[in-house]
Write a structure and sequence with these properties.
The chain is mainly α and 118 residues long. 71% of the residues lie in helices and 0% in strands. It contains four helices and no strands. The longest helix has 28 residues, at 28-55.
Amino acid sequence: MMIKKSLYLLAVATLSPGLLSCSKSGPVENAAKELCECLKPVFSDMEKFSQALESGDKSAMEKIARAAGEVGEQSTNCMQSLQERYPEIGDDMNLQTQVTVRIKELCPPPEIFGAIPH
């Protein structure tokens, strides 16, 4: 069950508004789309893991869990790249909120284990 907690914490950390970045002069839409691209691999693995858990496929769960660190690192690097490109968003909670709302519309996190609120 440690794997469930790890995946959940990874998703929560990934969606944390403090990690979100976009440009004040650029549309919120673009920032949300870019972040969705960063999150695709994480969300995909979360869905696969949930399906493997439901079917009892321990081999698939182990394989996904082993790859989770690399996938999480790639997503983190992607988000850090966005922060570097758009540093002005760091203190703008209004823009962070707008991007967060749009992300939830464009690419909502998968509902795994009934634990991730939307």
